[in-house]
């Protein structure tokens, strides 16, 4: 009787078909699968798949794999001693070739030049082994993570196949990674072999966590909890492995991949500082290996060049966005990159990679917004310079919008066919929300016109209102999907980059007493209320905007009920609260102490703390950054907006949700 093929046979066939160049490596894995199949013939599995307890002889690679650096060459720039020595070597070689030497001396000169070339070559290529070790350090074995449970292999195979066929999609990096590297082979290694690395553990669990989480939205209700349990299991494995990574990592593409998966995961958790830490390490490894320089890949095969470029630009995307989100200078200098940036004009074979080029362009714009408008140096630029920079960045965003429309015309139908109409509509509209939010941030940097009665330019206010309107369009798609995309929207649009349109309109309400804008804020707060059940970060976001809306509402109510010529006891105190929010109380406004009391202690003390002001009756100390300029100075305003986000991230800003 012919034996029925199992999922394990199918995966082996898939790996062999897709990776014929790696036959030698796969051979060992085939033996493991064959052995497993023999066991299955003797002891067939039960009908209900259970999570696999994976406890190899050594759950993690030997300590040497962690402490011994790789032998990759350190890529040094043109200012290094090695670069100048290389120039000197070329110079003397050319000089020797230009002038004929006596035959008696030619041999000696040639030997000397060859010796020089060898020395220069050695200097040009210091290895990580030489550079990244402490010569007197004693090897110490790192703690073993221990055995890991893995989801049933058959279920893992199902979601991998769907992702490769682009019939499953989401915000995870796995959907791009799976198109350029054989994820199924790495899974095979972790499931059926003891010869795997900690990077394999991170990659497999990060990928499967995303796939199972997304797939849980497409299965019958009775199966949803099962796949969410698989995702949670992978998340525990992933976070345990990431938490045990050492400070010094070998410079290799595997570790860059693992760090990028970790950075993506940290964004899903709304932990931008953690993501920045992982990105910074990945950036260090990329620079060490020269992934940003075309000259470092001159001898590489085309597929290897493609993979290195993919890793670098994936890092570029998340790092540049975090630079703006956190207000930190980027570790990647655009002027130091010599590899080609992905473009929508490239000959893409998959819609995912075409849209990937758009994300890179958006990240470039975000990095430039911080560098040109919000960095410390940019704050000191003359008004005409800042206006020129604003015009340049507005033009960049307009070009991005045009490129997005062109990409949609070419790929949207294919993408909808593969991944679903609702998902692609969601991606398109949420990207539009982010673009409009960035446009608001750019216009916010326009210097205030002399004699202007308002802090914000008409263009800034229009962009902020357009953002909130487009947000409502996006929420329509989110609600149509039953809330499937709400988590992605909150974490990757509202929290991933500075969402300031709400703050801009809030300040404008305080300044201009605009009831229409107040209604916009109220609608926004109501629309994201369902997000409070997604995560603590989402709940805190809702709480922050809810409190700001309450402040604006109460402000207008109390102003309307207070005579213009009255003198309220609490006017001085409310001025301090408005200053803490980045906007002084308009001249002549008098508010009652009830405004302060009605806001509650969590907000009132919080805004004072973030501004460095005392809550006592005496004179408060104002943070030095708030002394710069006058009124709603940009630096003052930016500082306090960042402080509000920091306040939101404090554990005591909102009680933790029950687990």
UniProtKB/TrEMBL annotation:
<feature type="domain" description="Xylanolytic transcriptional activator regulatory">
    <location>
        <begin position="275"/>
        <end position="348"/>
    </location>
</feature>
<feature type="region of interest" description="Disordered">
    <location>
        <begin position="41"/>
        <end position="64"/>
    </location>
</feature>
<dbReference type="GO" id="GO:0003700">
    <property type="term" value="F:DNA-binding transcription factor activity"/>
</dbReference>
<keyword id="KW-1133">Transmembrane helix</keyword>
<dbReference type="GO" id="GO:0003677">
    <property type="term" value="F:DNA binding"/>
</dbReference>
<dbReference type="GO" id="GO:0006351">
    <property type="term" value="P:DNA-templated transcription"/>
</dbReference>
<dbReference type="GO" id="GO:0008270">
    <property type="term" value="F:zinc ion binding"/>
</dbReference>
<feature type="transmembrane region" description="Helical">
    <location>
        <begin position="489"/>
        <end position="510"/>
    </location>
</feature>
<feature type="compositionally biased region" description="Polar residues">
    <location>
        <begin position="43"/>
        <end position="55"/>
    </location>
</feature>
<keyword id="KW-0812">Transmembrane</keyword>
<protein>
    <recommendedName>
        <fullName>Xylanolytic transcriptional activator regulatory domain-containing protein</fullName>
    </recommendedName>
</protein>
<keyword id="KW-0472">Membrane</keyword>
<dbReference type="InterPro" id="IPR007219">
    <property type="entry name" value="XnlR_reg_dom"/>
</dbReference>
<dbReference type="InterPro" id="IPR050987">
    <property type="entry name" value="AtrR-like"/>
</dbReference>
<keyword id="KW-0539">Nucleus</keyword>
<dbReference type="Pfam" id="PF04082">
    <property type="entry name" value="Fungal_trans"/>
</dbReference>
